Automatic annotation (TrEMBL):
<protein>
    <submittedName>
        <fullName>Uncharacterized protein</fullName>
    </submittedName>
</protein>
<keyword id="KW-0472">Membrane</keyword>
<keyword id="KW-0812">Transmembrane</keyword>
<keyword id="KW-1133">Transmembrane helix</keyword>
<feature type="transmembrane region" description="Helical">
    <location>
        <begin position="383"/>
        <end position="404"/>
    </location>
</feature>
<feature type="transmembrane region" description="Helical">
    <location>
        <begin position="353"/>
        <end position="377"/>
    </location>
</feature>
């Protein structure tokens, strides 16, 4: 299958590259998401906002810009670019850049394979020269590789391919309607950006691959993996005016938005996980725990969504992305760890307060007793007052040497301050 997949050319071939960048200022681009249909930017944003929940729409469309710019290099044609602000506590200038490409008259899998840096690929990285992210975003954003925790080594890709009548490996049987196993294998190759010989598939994994594949409809399927996602048609594409016009708009629009939200969630969870591990490094953990609790609450109310819309495919794609990156489990661990740390800090603070009250008791009781005795006796001699104070301090010192006194002092010297 490797040779067949590497030579496969579809009627429509497109892929989007998601690149994390830093952008100090808003770009002089049109506001809103990139329109792939007859709508302009504002109408496209309004149409998509009706599909998603208000909270998800605010994240996806509140701070987003697009630029329609055509640039060709070899078999690649740049169609447009998008920028979506996804700031984090460490990187307030963080942005996800979406670069939309079309592949012209050439197989797409070899380009994705070379882009992913597969050592078996003889081809150079196609995103160089005029279509390199650095060149495309020059003067707008800094494309230096992020140093964020667990940052991906390669940008995320979303591929879209519709077959012609010759690519029978992706087509349903015209008589039975059955889908050949090779269709899911090709879909997996496009999503993983690897030929079958690069990562040989174990026979035991075949049922899992079928279970992970999302059948958007009888005509096309989707697969979401850690390093990329792909959409593949299962009926011969007849060209402009075909159903795949609509499918391509969704794949490069609404369904891409679901993956953009998942990528933003992943970045925030990566950062929270790393910061939680450093809570007890240095003084002032109580302040750091309180700050982290605020960040977690803000993330939970702003970004953490598992339900996007009443339309199933977008929800399923987001859940598939979250599952591949174990985001629900990791966020549950963050919540549990933050709660444990908050309880520990509260316990230490309660011990310190109790210790301070104990010190006041140890210091105040002997002194108050001595002064009360002098007052009752009516003794106004300064020497007797000095003697009473000395006796009170001696009693205080003796009390601090007892087991109770040592516990009081130890509680004041607690490790959390």
């Amino acid at each position: 299958m490797t040779g067949v997949f590497l030579a496969a050319t579809g009627t429509r071939q497109a892929f989007t590259v998601l690149v994390p960048v830093r952008m100090p200022q808003d770009p002089p681009w049109a506001a809103g998401p990139l329109p792939f249909g007859p709508n302009d930017g504002a109408a496209e944003r309004e149409a998509r906002e009706r599909l998603f929940t208000p909270s998800a729409a605010r994240v996806l469309y509140g701070r987003r810009w697009h630029l329609q710019a055509v640039r060709e290099q070899g078999p690649l044609r740049l169609d447009a670019m998008e920028l979506l602000r996804t700031p984090t506590a460490r990187s307030p200038e963080q942005v996800l850049a979406a670069l939309h490409f079309t592949v012209l008259d050439a197989p797409m899998l070899p380009l994705l394979r070379a882009f992913s840096g597969r050592r078996q690929s003889p081809d150079p990285d196609p995103l160089t020269g005029d279509v390199a992210p650095t060149a495309l975003l020059a003067g707008v954003a800094d494309t230096t590789a992020p140093s964020a925790p667990f940052a991906l080594a390669r940008p995320y890709t979303v591929a879209f391919l519709t077959p012609d009548a010759r690519l029978v490996e992706a087509l349903r049987d015209p008589d039975t309607g059955e889908l050949p196993a090779t269709a899911d294998w090709l879909l997996q190759s496009l999503a993983s950006r690897a030929a079958p010989s690069d990562i040989p598939m174990a026979p035991e994994y075949v049922p899992d691959l079928a279970a992970e594949t999302r059948r958007v409809s009888a005509d096309w399927s989707a697969l979401v993996l850690r390093q990329g996602a792909a959409f593949l048609g299962h009926r011969a594409d007849t060209g402009p005016g075909d159903f795949y016009d609509y499918a391509e708009r969704n794949a490069r629009g609404v369904y891409l938005d679901a993956l953009l939200l998942g990528a933003a969630q992943r970045d925030h969870i990566d950062e929270l996980t790393d910061d939680l591990s450093a809570v007890f490094d240095g003084p002032g953990p109580a302040r750091r725990v309180a700050a982290l609790e605020q960040r977690i609450a803000r993330f939970r109310s702003t970004y953490w969504r598992q339900h996007l819309s009443a339309h199933g495919p977008a929800n399923e794609l987001l859940l598939a992305f979250q599952a591949k990156h174990r985001l629900p489990e990791r966020f549950a661990e963050i919540l549990a760890e933050a709660a444990d740390q908050a309880r520990l800090v509260q316990t230490q603070e309660s011990q310190q307060i109790a210790g301070a009250l104990g010190v006041l008791t140890v210091l105040g009781l002997p002194l108050a007793t001595a002064l009360s005795i002098l007052q009752v006796l009516g003794d106004k001699s300064p020497w007797h007052l000095v003697a009473a104070l000395a006796a009170a301090f001696a009693a205080t010192g003796a009390a601090l040497l007892t087991r109770y006194g040592r516990l009081v002092l130890n509680s004041l010297r607690g490790g959390l301050r």
